[in-house]
Design a protein that fits this description.
single chain; 245 residues; Rossmann fold; 4-stranded mixed β-sheet; 13 strands; methyltransferase; SAM-dependent_MTase; methyltransferase activity; FkbM family methyltransferase
Length: 245
Amino acid sequence: MKTIENMKYLKNILFRSGFHYFRMSMAQPPYWIAANGKSCQIFAGDYLGSATCYREIIIDDFYQIFNYAKHFKPSLIVDIGANIGIFSKLCSLLFPDANIYAYEPNPTALTWLEKNAKLTHIKVCPYAVGIQDELVFLDSRSDSTTGKISQGGNIPVQCIALTKVAQGQPIDLLKMDCEGSEWTILQNPELLKRTQSFCMEYHLFDQHTLEELQNLIEKADHRIVSITPQFDWDSQVGCLWSTHK
């Protein structure tokens, strides 16, 4: 069984990097990604977080986007917590006609996101997302991939109301990875109610529970399709998919 898993993993590295890597230790920025018969590079800083994101999103397919692409062709995609743009860039290959709104408030990550968005349908939105328009603080003292909105944050950033995300349009696919801010965003069901398919990295920190998360999602008229905990995070982190009823 282990041998089969290893072979599948090596196959993913080969095909999803466009045959540029045959083991993860070879992956250095700029990273290669391949999908839908096309390949491109992802520009990134040489730090651990970018390599982790590349592996999770492209090689491990944490968000199960390759399987989603077999069945759906979204025309409007929203990426909340886009970071350097790996998920958005992958979507630009899988769904070349889709308009993609990528939200990211971290100035360091934004520099790379803007570079990765060039010559694509990715619209860079330099904001955090919350209940209302306001100035909030981002704690960027760790890796840019784990920066989060916090009262003790060190960088002031602009937050926009979730009702303004994607200019209020219906959303075919919403991806969210915002290091705990999902608990604030999901308090208002408006965003999910105009979203058809939703995938997120959830964070069960600060005594939050999966049951609480399920209730928030179901109140927004969504049906949960799958929940996949990451056991290396003691199941406090994982991927959730839901779809509008």
